[in-house]
Specification:
This protein has 298 residues and is α+β, with helices and mostly antiparallel strands. Helix content is 25%, strand content 23%. Helix 2 runs antiparallel to helix 4. The chain binds flavin-adenine dinucleotide (FAD).
């Protein structure tokens, strides 16, 4: 339903968000848009600003726990902002915020460009990858980002370079800022053998599928590793593997995963997270921090 007949911005109201997250839980957005162009994005941000509405940005929802009570204001989902542009001369590739990371990894491999194989199993978008400084198997976004295109909530565009992004373990200066990432430019190594890179990329994907519970809804690592310790080891040693609240369970395959066995509520998952934190704090004196972003009221 279009709410604004003058601008024809396709903003909808009361849209369920559960299906837009990898955990498959959460309530509805008061208002929702998944813009298909930068014009539509700018118009929808202006629409929300004119009404003084809070704005929440989501990508693929693979690192989000959204409250059962839903979200007030406008939720902007970036997944329709698409486009990948390989510049053979500079060896750089620019991808729009909503591009799936896996698609970028596959396309880089088929170009014979290496340095992004580690990213193939990450189910997020390019925007989420940069904001989270997501990483795997020794690589992370910070290793290959050249610049990030952003827009402020009032519509001003800003190009940000790595020195201003404060990348560190699973975080960046973009977290908690009000900037919306619209795209990012990466630099890879361009002189590789595309067959070898493609087979390495596929091998990396296979390893993940055999060691992690991909068959059930989850958001992968619930907690940041309290280095030099590992969250999964602490949780497993506390005997919490398989522990359940409602139908939210600490995975039996990997202790730093929570899985939704079916119809779990965000409140079950939240309670399970709080329970794990309290057990590990009492047992090991370690305060676990969530890697997962929790949004809305809990
Ligand atoms: C099966 C599975 C495997 C995973 N494997 C890994 C892994 O190997 N390594 C790893 O690091 N993570 C992993 N994750 C977690 C997750 O995929 C990453 O954190 C990913 O980068 C999140 O991207 P997203 O698009 O889903 O972001 P979302 O979950 O939608 O959002 C995450 C945060 O980023 C913000 N955000 C998203 N897009 C934008 C944007 N365009 N502009 C501004 N803010 C934005 C959101 O507001 C939110 O705060 C995994 C998750 C799952 C479910």
């Amino acid at each position: 339903m279009s709410l604004d007949l003058q601008t024809q911005i396709p903003i909808r109201s009361n849209v369920s968000l559960a299906g837009l997250t990898s955990m498959r839980v959460g309530g509805a957005a008061e208002y929702f848009i998944s813009p298909r162009s930068s014009t539509e994005l700018a118009e929808s941000l202006a629409w929300a600003c004119d009404r003084n509405l809070p704005i929440t940005i989501i990508g693929a929802g693979s690192n989000l726990l959204i409250s059962d009570r839903g979200l007030e204001g406008l939720v902007v989902c970036t997944r329709h902002l698409r486009g990948i542009d390989f510049d053979e001369k500079s060896g750089q590739v620019t991808a729009a915020a909503g591009e799936p990371v896996a698609r970028l990894a596959m396309q880089a491999a088929s170009h014979g460009w290496s340095g992004f194989e580690w990213a193939v199993g990450i189910p997020g978008t390019v925007g989420g990858l940069v904001v989270m400084n997501a990483g795997a198997q020794g690589g992370c976004a910070a290793d290959c980002v050249v610049s990030v295109e952003t827009v402020t909530l009032t519509g001003e565009t800003k190009l940000i370079h790595p020195q201003d992004l404060d990348f560190s373990y699973r975080t960046s200066a973009l977290q908690g800022s009000s900037l919306l990432v619209t795209g990012a430019t990466f630099k890879f190594q361009t002189s590789g053998d595309s067959t070898a890179i493609a087979s390495d990329t596929e091998a990396k994907l296979k390893v993940r599928h055999t060691t992690q519970p991909y068959h059930l809804p989850n958001f992968r690592s619930v907690f940041r590793n309290p280095l030099p310790q590992f969250a999964a080891r602490l949780i497993e040693d506390a005997g919490l593997k398989g522990y359940q609240i409602g139908t939210a369970q600490v995975s039996e395959l990997h202790a730093n995963f929570i899985v939704n066995l079916g119809n779990a509520k965000a409140s079950d998952i939240f309670s399970l997270i709080e329970h794990i934190k309290s057990v590990i704090c009492d047992r090991n004196g370690v305060v676990l921090e969530t890697e997962v972003k929790m949004i809305g009221h809990f």
